[in-house]
Write a structure and sequence with these properties.
The complex is a heterodimer of chains A (288) and B (94).
Chain A: H1 15-36, E1 38-40, E2 46-48, H2 52-59, H3 61-91, H4 98-111, H5 114-125, H6 131-138, H7 149-177, H8 181-189, H9 194-222, H10 226-231, H11 243-253, H12 257-287
Antiparallel strand pairs in A: 1-2
Chain B: H1 11-33, E1 40-41, E2 47-48, H2 50-72, H3 77-93
Antiparallel strand pairs in B: 1-2
Helix pairs in contact in B: 2-3
Classes of the chains: A mainly alpha (288), B mainly alpha (94).
């Protein structure tokens, strides 16, 4: 008798997940692909349009503008959150009773739902009654995030930094804590400066977790919707309309299902590419 | 009978998904008769299995078609030729 080296019956256990994914991912995605090539005026009547919508989206200034805003936003929050996260992680205590206090404090913002964060910052930053808005105005700054693009951007970036720097901190802290004391002792014997300790001991040891942090923050911020939607609603004008907010405006505001479907597929391909890069980089780090 | 008219199926989109599923099935058959074995290191310094290469091929051809559409508009025959070339390149060299 031929002996089977593996029991293939376990695959049956995957069937429920497959069905679930088919319902909530494959079927909607297939529908989006179908919509992206057609025009509809409702009532399930469709007209073939070919790749018109894709071409229109790829050449539309509106799409370019929201993609650019999206990249700028992602770039800005990464440029702030990563160095800030490293700095906070390095200044956190590594022994003693304060460790748990710091960790809990750091984890708190991560536990708050996105829409609540948006609502909190909306009220916090209101120029007439909010603590931040009122204080800034009474100090003589002209600050109104509902009317000035710069204020709106500042508030959105600040909100994201407030919400997500903790994630970078916690990841970096885990990296720093995994460094054995012997490294620091060796550095002390060599008379290394604190910059040298950071550059040649802490930073290399943090490389793995830092890659994860950067890629996670990149992906999350690239798909951000709820927080800026609740805070600014994409305004004033279109100045904080990021990709996902623009997509919802086209699909549900204007009910242009064809262009919205084409745009979401382009968006999906970009996210898929980033996911793949994320996965590849992570796997490489595992090997090292 | 289940009413699926809201999914707005057309022949070209159905053909696309059939091609996608077919490519995965071909990979299965290929793997059964001639196993691909361990990942290999290609020209980009990536360790890829056959499945990885199929994914890279499909994703890449998506971007090739989008880029062609953005720069040269329709018809997309040129993009299709490039995408087939990309498939061959990825399966042979990456």
């Amino acid at each position: 008798m031929v002996r089977k080296s593996t029991n293939q019956k376990a695959w049956l256990l995957v069937v429920p997940v497959l069905l679930l994914v088919a319902f909530n991912a494959f079927i909607p995605l297939m529908t989006v692909v179908n919509y992206s090539l057609q025009e509809t005026f409702g009532d399930n009547v469709f007209f073939w349009e070919g790749v018109t919508w894709f071409e229109a989206v790829l050449r539309s200034e509106r799409f370019h503008a929201s993609l650019l805003r999206q990249l700028m936003f992602t770039g800005m929050i990464l440029a702030i959150e990563i160095p800030l996260g490293i700095a906070v992680a390095l200044s956190m205590p590594r022994k003693g009773p304060w460790v748990s206090v710091c960790l809990v404090l750091m984890a708190l913002p991560l536990l708050i739902p996105w829409n609540v964060v948006g609502a909190m910052w909306n009220i916090f930053a209101l120029p007439d009654i909010g603590l931040l808005g009122y204080s800034l105005n009474s100090m003589g700054f002209d600050y109104n995030f509902t009317q000035q693009p710069v204020s709106a951007w500042m508030t959105t970036v600040l909100m994201d930094v407030w919400h997500w720097t903790s994630l970078v901190v916690l990841l970096c802290y885990a990296g720093v804590c995994s460094i054995p004391d012997a490294y620091y002792q060796a550095a002390r014997i060599d008379g290394a400066s604190s910059w040298a300790v950071f550059r040649y001991i802490q930073l290399p040891k943090m490389k793995r977790v830092l890659t994860i942090a950067i890629l996670l923050r990149f992906m999350d911020s690239f798909m951000i919707y709820t927080e800026p939607f609740v805070l600014t609603g994409g305004g004033p004008g279109n100045t904080t309309t990021f990709l996902s907010i623009d997509l919802v405006k086209i699909a549900l505001g204007q009910f242009d299902l064809g262009p919205a479907a084409a745009m979401s597929l382009i968006y999906f391909l970009i996210v898929l590419l980033i996911c793949w890069v994320f996965y590849t980089v992570m796997m490489r780090n595992e090997e090292q | 009978m289940l009413d699926l008219s809201w999914m707005a199926w057309t022949w070209p989109t159905a053909a696309f998904f059939v091609a996608l599923v077919f490519s995965i099935m071909v990979m299965g058959v290929w793997e059964k008769y001639s196993p691909g074995g361990d990942p290999r290191r290609g020209v980009f310094g990536l360790d890829t299995t056959r499945g990885d290469r199929l994914f890279i091929s499909w994703l890449g051809s998506g971007f090739i078609h989008l880029a062609w559409l953005a720069f040269f508009s329709t018809p997309l025959w040129g993009a299709l030729a490039l995408a087939i070339g990309w498939f061959v390149f990825v399966f042979k060299k990456v």
